[in-house]
Batch of 3 targets.
Target 1
Amino acid sequence: MREEKLSDVIRGARSVFFEHGLAGARVDQIADAAGVSKATMYAHFPSKTALFTEVVSRECDMLAEELETLLRAQGPTEETLQSFSDALISLVFSNAYIRLYRICVAEAGRFPEIGELFFKAGPERVRLILAGYLMERCQSGDLMIPNPDFAADQFIQLSFTSILNDRLFGVQKRISKSVISGRAKSATSAFLAIYTAKPGMG
């Protein structure tokens, strides 16, 4: 399958899966949305689940790469972490991420490999990317962190845990830019209050 045609299939599948979920999506709907025949789809993806797995993988790659780019900007640590937190909250509150999260959790019982893929390609990958950045900041002398993996998880939880359930359960459908910025600033300040290297440490 040519790359252009493959991209059409992925885009079509994404729109159908996000609207109907994995269980509710039909192959003919996906083929129609992609503008290809079912035979063309099956030539590249042997099943609907395989196609959904590809959609999940690409979505997670896109989100993780966006966050990783922020950490590679080489700015001051506080500014970089606050930008990361701001972007992370915005992504987690996006309709696309919430829809993908809900579908993967719903299907993880029937298809454990989908839940594992989403976790490793999404939340786990982001945590590892952040942990790598924190380790670099420790080596530069900006931070003093005994366990960067644990600290990365702490920072992520500080950023959005208390408001994630509101979004997942539909209690809060939108979050303003000012609230996102405020939470990112608060999370960063709390984190740096613990882990900023002090004179004479190390």
Note: The chain has two domains: 1-46, 53-195.
Target 2
Amino acid sequence: MNYIDIENIDLNLLRVFEALIEEGGASRAAIRLGLTQPAVSAALGRLRRVYSDPLFERTGRGLRPTVRANELAPLVEEALTQCRQALALTTVGNEIKGRTVTVGLSDDSEIALGQKILKKVDEHLPGLHIIFRQTHSGLAQDMLMRHQIDLAITAGGLSSHLVTSHRLGKGNYLCIADKNTSVPVTVADYAQRPHLLVSSGGFVGVVDEALNAVGYKRSVKVSTTHFAAVPFLLIETDLITTVPSHAARAMEKNTSLQIFPCPVSMPPYELEIGTRVGNRHDKVLHELKSIIVKICQTPGFLS
């Protein structure tokens, strides 16, 4: 391995690299860093010489990182995080100043948790910037390991010894429909209604498995991959859908939709929050994690 004397390297170049990775373009990186675009372009030129790699390639939509840049990204992010944590010790409260934390979660959890998290952050961690990034149980752990997110809220999938996880609680499901739709009481009535399915792919979901177990099959009229689309697809229709309880309650609160119990017994799921083991001494992440745990463990939030 070739070692480079850091005394001959401007470590601010790493901040430029971080901004380019996260913003995807020199102009946005310049705005973020408070620099001119030519200054960012010049810094990129120096980075390319240091690493003997183009690092970023121009596309029609900005800059695309090379394989080498993607390999460097988690290392640079970790190094800058450690530097920021060390400098934060100089003054009480400095650990928050200019800090951004990326929270990975599915959009049903974002609908239910997003506003509550932001309110608590304003109270307890003023100045902290939050990025919500969509993920799910099949991606969350990998995104943590790649430093694409700092915290993961997911229904399982966190099994690595490099990830520390905490149980948030056991979730369940509720049905939701337009306020003028009659509520199905029996499983038979529920099964014959036109259904909206929220799924990452296909027309079979957890509801279909529950119905199949008791000898019924439903009619899925439409499928979407995003919970955020649910209210717009349900309003003024006879469709019904079955979603996690915390998301259903948030949708009912902010729309004219109604929620009601699911006539068929649905299996509960475990929701958990995870971070990288290497962040165990990060005070800001620890405080944010505590905020999320308290929200989720509020009586009735997940059930």
Note: The chain has a mean pLDDT of 90.
Target 3
Amino acid sequence: MFELLDGKQVETVRVVAHTKSISRAAEQLGYVQSTITSHVKMVEKTVGQTLFHRLPRGVELTEAGAIFLRYSEKWSLLGRELTQELPSGQSIEGTVTLSVLESFCTTRMTDLLTAIFLKYPRIKLHLLPGFMEDTCQRILQGECELGIVAGRPQMGGVDFLPLVNVRMVWVVPMSMQLRWEEEGWEALDDVRVIGFGPQCVYQAVASQLLQESGIKPSQYSTFYSLEMMKQTIKVGMGMALLPYRTVKEEIEQEALGYLPLQVPTLIHGLVWKQGDELSPAAITIRDILVEKFKNEQEAD
């Protein structure tokens, strides 16, 4: 049950229960009253129970609310104990700008970012979306200290540390997958290839693989949003080479198809300016990323 709940919303319910007032809870937590009401409603929807009786003046716990309050107190206590047990990151501070592919960040780094924010509250981590060339240029120009790129940079002046081999897959409409099963390569005649643009390594690899197979796409279409690419493929407008994790759910639900072709994995790694001494905050972020991916294998 608690894995479905949002921590801030649980804390809101706990404070409302103690203050017996939406307005006093809003004042104590620094929210507007509509936010407090929204948090309470979201928790009630998640647990499927009414937690408060709404009175002319204030609120009162229902039987279910009293039970929920007991567990929310335990939740709050565990949070305080966890904060005390974790090694202190208070002494490390600074601003670190990390340039990273959107698809990599959203599928592999969300839990990691949460852990960084909790353990190192004085490190201000700024994320910038960027492809290989964007990221390397930013590093060379001093606009960011660290980057995560797909493939090994050919540009000089940056150090590269491999992190993880990413499984790639040809993503197609379900109709094209069925045609492929019947017709083979002929199903790809005059196909449109969808990608993030010529600056993206994924699209460059896709072009190379098609060329080696003797396939000439009718055209290339550029989209800068992963979600837009998925929707475009769903309606039959083309195919794309993407990391499997970004489309795993849609493939399993048969909302998107895929071609069972052998596609090389693509190394993703960390880059920073060659010869530069990184700040303590940047070294901390780099080491966390290295440790995170040290034992990870692309098993999907």
Note: Residues 94-166+267-298 form a domain with the D-Maltodextrin-Binding Protein; domain 2 fold (CATH 3.40.190.10).
